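Contributing: when you submit paired examples, paste them exactly as shown. First protein:
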Amino acid sequence: MLMRNLVFLTVFTILFLSVEMVNACVDYYVQAPNFNYDPQSLSPTLGVTTINITKFTCPQPVYLRINQGNSSSYQNRHMNSGSNRLKYNFYVQPNSASSIWGDGSGGTYTQLISGATSINLYTIIEAQQNIVPGAYTDAVNFYFAP
């Protein structure tokens, strides 16, 4: 009998929530993709989230900072579906796990903003994670602060 490998597609969403710090002087919108994840793929799942700053009226430059979401550390970000976890992270460069976006602590990356611009956060979901099918989410806060 011929057996087929089943491929589970998992949709995940990262909810970007803004914390009002100096955000009153920054107008922006976020383009965040949804991903389909195949746990049998040998390659990580890649995506790009873009923060588009359309107006900047702050009296001084500010940093874009991002929290760890549901995770207890920046290095181990994960999304949840009930008690199940899917590992991922935001990186400064595509296809590179060297610089992780964060709040500047523990060597994480922030970016100084002084005007209208677009900023990419490259998402990498680790390959071949043993997960159950489901909708995985994370709530990530980002904010602009001196």
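Second protein:
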Amino acid sequence: MENTIFTPCKIGPIELRNRSIRSAAFENMCSGNRPTQMLFDYHTAVARGGIGMTTIAYAAVSRSGLSFDGQLWMRPEIVPELRRLTDAIHAEGAKASIQLGHCGNMTRRSIHADCCAPRWSSLLKSPPSDAASLSGAVSAPARMDATT
């Protein structure tokens, strides 16, 4: 059987130069929760090294979804920096992907001291009885009924 790892392939309409994909692994390279030169240099080097696609890791979809200081936070004002990064990756012949997420109840109060830490499930009509004792992580209620 012929080895196909270094042959082009398609993922939907996207054609990769080969079948190697750098999976998401938290880089911790986003000072101010935005792309930095270090993140740019890292992913550009991975692309230059011949990878088919590189994945920018663990980007929070909202500020309340951050769990680390060095984590990327998706918002309109960082689009030019992300465009610069993807353009550089494409110039090296690779594709770029991004891992989007929200940390949910794994947030830390220190990350959200000035804004928006999640406190309880939006399915609950009111905070759990022990909400005052929460330290940034939320325990699941004993029973959740989607009809309430």
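If you have annotations for the second protein, write them as plain sentences, like these:
The chain has two helices and five strands.
The longest strand covers residues 53-60.
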